[in-house]
Amino acid sequence: MSRKRYSFIILILGSLATVSPFSIDMYLPGFPTIASDLHTTIDKVQFSLTGYLIGICISQLIYGPLIDRFGRKTPLYAGLVLYVLASVGCALTSSVEALIIMRFFQAMGGCVGLVASQALVSDLFPAGKRAEVFSMITLVIAVSPMIAPTVGGYVTVGFGWQWLFIILAGIVSIMIVGIYFFLPTGQAADHSISLRPRSVLDSYITVIKQPQFLIYTLAGGVATAAPFAYISGSSDVFMNLYKVTEQQYGWIFALLAVAMIGSTQFNHFLLKKYSSEQVIKVTLIGQTIMGLFLIVGVWDHWFNLYSLIGTMFIFLIGQGLTGPNITALSLAPFRKHTGSASALMGSWRMGAGAIISAIVSILHNGTAMPMVGIMAACAMVGLGILYAGNSVVRYRASRRDVEEEVSVLL
């Protein structure tokens, strides 16, 4: 594969994986305007984010078996068309309840990009290259929060929040055309894979029984949910507490996205000297320390706008390191069930994100504490799961070794 074609394929896969992040980030600056136009409150508008994450959580479990059974492209087209229709529905809503429902269906369509892009990486690249490829895809994804909120702020002010969803529908329509002409097909349809509920469940059980998948997916799902606490609470914290405008909020969001972009590229160099396991452990320890610092700082009123942004910048550096490495380690044991493994991993991540965003909304108290407290908790719990899981695996391995030695002696 030529370098030019290699880069172009990664760009397409990154764009696919960006559909949902872009859909989340772009409308954040419009929360106050949406709340005003729909005669509701910001915390209720925040539940449209929760609805979106629930949609991703559920639909990934559906798309996983579908892309294994029918190949990558057919489910991809179906999902993206649903996304376009739901986006138009979001633009036409007149109540917050309708917006939440349309966002759910928008997610049901858009999340196919997450599942298909991860499966296609496993199809198109050798195992030794996948962590590097995931890092580069994460770089493309990380550009989304730099562009989306900034564009969203200006579109909301200039044209109205409804145009945010019209633009999203247009972008994905263009992507469908590009996918048809330029994206490789990947693994062919496997008609031996049954879509009967029992068979699908057995496939997921097979995936879950793999210890490496279970440990890194559980730990990674919680750890990578920290940005959802930030996403859910940041518009209220920055726009209501610190009184920034929609456009300023977009630039703040873009600045914090640089943390993930820079660390994603740094991860590329770290992997030349260290394993993904080592990078993840050190990163989660660092995030735990910074998370505790955020909690104490907010509690004791240390932070002004700039110091809060700076501290969160350091914390979010970790997201560009944990995400690609955990993804690569979670999917490494699989070949036949890659789609199901990818869907299960993504579903857990989005499910954790939905829970986290809902908790931030429920704990809303007019301060930054719900946001930073949940961010810190995600890092700490993820680190705890990682250490506990690896300890159990080592213990079971040592038990097996002892039993084998005893059986030999007997």
From TrEMBL:
Compartment(s) where it occurs, according to its Swiss-Prot or TrEMBL record: Cell membrane
Matching InterPro entries: Efflux_drug-R_Bcr/CmlA, MFS, MFS_dom, MFS_trans_sf
Membrane topology designation: Multi-pass membrane protein
Domain Major facilitator superfamily (MFS) profile: residue ranges: 9-394
Alphabetized UniProt keyword annotations: Cell membrane, Membrane, Transmembrane, Transmembrane helix, Transport
Domain of life of the organism encoding this protein: Bacteria
SUPFAM superfamilies attached to this UniProt entry: MFS general substrate transporter
Example GO biological process: xenobiotic detoxification by transmembrane export across the plasma membrane
Molecular function in Gene Ontology: sodium:proton antiporter activity; xenobiotic transmembrane transporter activity
Segments passing through the bilayer: 45-64, 76-94, 100-121, 133-155, 161-183, 213-231, 251-270, 282-299, 305-331, 343-363, 369-389
Protein name: Bicyclomycin resistance protein
Species of the source: Dyadobacter helix
Gene responsible for this protein: bcr
